[in-house]
Amino acid sequence: MSQGPFLLVVTRDGKSETHAFHQDVVTIGRSRDCDLYLPDRLISRLHCRVERQDGLFVLVDAGAQNPAKMRGRPVLRAEFKVGEAFSLGNYEIALAMPATENASVDETKPGDHPRGAHDLVAFLQIARALNEEQDLTRLLTQIVDATIQMCGAERGFLILGNGSEHSVEVARNFAQEEVLSPEFKISRTIANRVMATGVPELTTNAQEDDRFRDLQSVTDLRLRSVLCIPIRIHGEVGGVLYVDNRLQQQVFQEREKSLLLSLADHAGTAILNARTVEQLRSKQVELTAALDRVDQLNAALKGQLQEKTNELSQIREEISSQSLAQRSKYDYKQIVGNGRAMRNVFALLDKYIDAEDPVLITGDSGTGKELVARAIHVHSRRSHKAFVSENCAALPEALLESELFGYVRGAFTGATQNKKGLLESADGGVLFLDEVGDMPLDLQAKLLRVLQEGEVRPIGSRETIKVDVRLICATNRNLDAMVREGEFREDLYYRLAVLPVHLPPLRDRREDIPQLVKRFLGDLQRETHNRVRVSADAMERIVQYNWPGNVRDLQNEIRRASILCDGIILENHLSQHVREGRTGPGAGLVDDGLVPAERGTTLPDMVRELETREIQKAFERAQSNKSRAAELLGLSRFALQRKLDKYALDAEGRPTGAPPKDDETS
After folding, report:
1. Which of 6, 134, 244, 522 is least surrounded by CB atoms within 10 angstroms?
2. 489 near 441, Cβ under 8 Å?
């Protein structure tokens, strides 16, 4: 006989639910058959009981591996007083009594409101989790785990496919462990029937159910409780949810069937969405791979186009060279250049080669003056005789004289034997004197006598030697200005400059730069056996640069860049000054659109800064030779001295520390 209701207050994660009971024995566990259902894996299916005897309450263990704890100690059987609590898994359960005898309390029974509310909350949590999961594999696993939890099943299986072609995608047990060889752990007949008909199958005891007891799989697997629900995807049965319990019967009822039907509908939508996301990701991967292939093809095509462009450029150069050779009397293949400036040079050489008069080659350092001298020798009637060269700036006066004229034994200390001079060695051939503007005046007079008389007298000898030499001289200095300054003999100048030819600086024949680069790269390939190309951007920078050191400067830059690069010279492999184009007058000035006052300076100050910097550069380039520095600046020696006085610079262009003169006093 009932003694009135009592309350069990269940608390988890700070949330409490109150359940009222009239019976004297209340079972507690993870099974839905228990009076107090607690879905926790740490709790056994039937964990413990609360028994009421003559108004007293006793907590009794039901054989669980981890008994409930009261007052911090495991309990097998202990008195349970009002206000006391015991812990069970993640729950804390306290005993209480209604405030009044007639209080209305909802009881916890299967199908009553508390159980339905719990199912609704659990279903909403599962639905939210399925909506958030986009990975198909994890989604299917969550569906099976949720199904086992909601139904209190021992095992769960999710099968996907159409008709006879289907497979077990997920197989799990109540402990969320994988079930091995799942194809042999289910009744295929039940699963296939639901897959074909779309009608759910429920049996509370398959061993006694007329529909299933004759099935071999049911007998072999000793199945009892089985529930199989169709999963509809896009309106068609695309799989089934299969749960079972081999040990207990009547585990699944209509309530579990209804819950799983709702879950299956939601799972079908989630599976469709996850498959769509997976397909989109797969398409994205394919698209990315396709774009990568397109980029690779574009790069390959670009490379092929560059190769073809280079081949066409080479053909054009060969045609241009052949055309130039046809226009020119001689072949100047050792001298690179098809532009107008070089064609004019070649036209002069065509006329000079057959003559016997001296040739004076002028031009900046590095323009290739010796190449021109050798071309004259190679194509002249003297090609079978010697080509002898000497740099007049490389030797002191006494040594240069002995090199040119030779000497006899005993002519000076150390002259232990006769030595033939360069003029005598070049007899019948060509003597090339480079940097002739640096020849001392006394030696200029002796050279003039050789040119006038055709004879050379070795140092210390009384006899002269007849020589037949064609003289080719070269200089990067302004001999006209040197004659006016008295630094070069006027009569010698006119004897040397019978056939003048001027080599233009590289900045005045930019159209020849790509061809020069190709020549240098070809020489490097023959030397190192490594093929190097130049990118379009790098070539643009190379062509735009002024190259103050001319062809030699360009050659050094290409050698340096080819060492730094990995087969292709890019813009970043070039020297910083080449990339930035910092050459020429005014290169240090900034064209920012501002007038001097807006920059905090004045025009005279800017002019003074520019002129001082350029004078110092000229002295450095001329190795402190004032005449040569004046020539590099385009000034007379007198005008340069006025600049030095004006800006308080010494004879080498360095500041003296004295105050600079203004324009009125200079």
Report:
1. 522
2. yes
